[in-house]
User: What shape does this take?
Amino acid sequence: MRFLDLKCSPRKLLALTFGTLLAACGGKPPVTTPTPTTSRAATVRMAMGWSAAVTLSRNDSIVLTMPGNETQLQQTSRRAAFTLTVDQRGGMTLRLDSLSLVPFPERASIPMVGTVWTGRMLGNRVEWYATAGAGPVIENLTTDIAGFFPHLPAGGVSPSSRWSDTSTSRGRVDIFETSERSTANWVAGADTLILGQPGLLITEERSLEQSGKGAEGSMTMSMTGQGVRSNTYYLRTSGEISSVTRRDSMAVLISVPASHQLVPTTRFIRSKVVFSPMMRGRTP
Assistant: This one.
């Protein structure tokens, strides 16, 4: 899918770019080891040997600033269902069971049911290694999946724990080669009940900065982006995730020097992930 048609009007330019512009903003889970700022004994660690049916509901609202300061609102949504399996050694698979996209993306190859992501539980975080699929839809889902699990201190968490992490990475957002830096602050709340079972509410506030350069033919351009991601994780004291809510606010500016175009945009993301446990210790 092409990022930019240089003969397009600004309105068409924006419509073409938004499908993949911010696909990398979610990124991968940070690889730095978080440092807790509490001396309390750890009580909860992420569990191994369980499986769950997982549902994702996501709604995006995109505000485009057109020439003359006219604004335009675009809205998209996706619904996906997965089967998650975590084996006793921390090996993980996530299988796509169904997917609904609104609007249906033109020229995009919709991944077939059965696409599988593989990864590993590394004690304090999850690292996803690979997927059997490819294309912009898979890349967008991969970004969502990267936020399914929190990044915990190595020893686990207890009520009132606080920790932080930073991450610097390089990647590609369509035609742009990008670098990204993010900083997150985490807080574990007081003991709570999750569907009648004891658990912890864990919040993440992550600031993001991104920049990149790219070219379409002989035309060069650049992009910069800043934003905030707020995640709330409900973690059972048994170490299994119950649900995740996500709220993103991202601002991105694309600069096209040859045409003297500046394209400011803002995206708001609201999503929820629900884990419904299946048979512990067995593969579905």
In short: The helical segments are 10-17, 136-145.
